[in-house]
Amino acid sequence: MAAWYRDNLGVPMSEKGTVTFHWLDTATTEYPGTTTMALFAQDTEYIGEPHQRTMLNLRVDDLVSLMAKLKARGVEVLAETEDSEFGLFGWCVDPEGNRIELWEPAEGM
């Protein structure tokens, strides 16, 4: 899964399936701020009940172009998109069936 996220969505996952993003806009010395994404096996008990699920939302620069590239690579891309005041949204599915939301923010966001 780490390779899939790295190769298809550009998420710089380590071989162990983790990545940490540093908050550059709001970081201070006291509160540097990070967000970490970590992949776990489907049968893990670490994150709680088996029915618990999350959806990853990734901010992208050019949704239409990215979705075309993903399709060309054989990634399942949902045909539906949503254009709202917040920007353009689209979705793809990773190899384990997890839906990923791709968001191209509206101007000024």
UniProtKB/TrEMBL annotation:
InterPro entries referenced in this protein's UniProt entry, alphabetically: Anthracycline_SecMetBiosynth (IPR052164), Glyas_Bleomycin-R_OHBP_Dase (IPR029068), Glyas_Fos-R_dOase_dom (IPR004360), VOC_core (IPR037523)
PROSITE patterns: VOC
Pfam families membership: Glyoxalase (PF00903)
Domain VOC: 1-105
Name this protein carries in UniProt: Glyoxalase
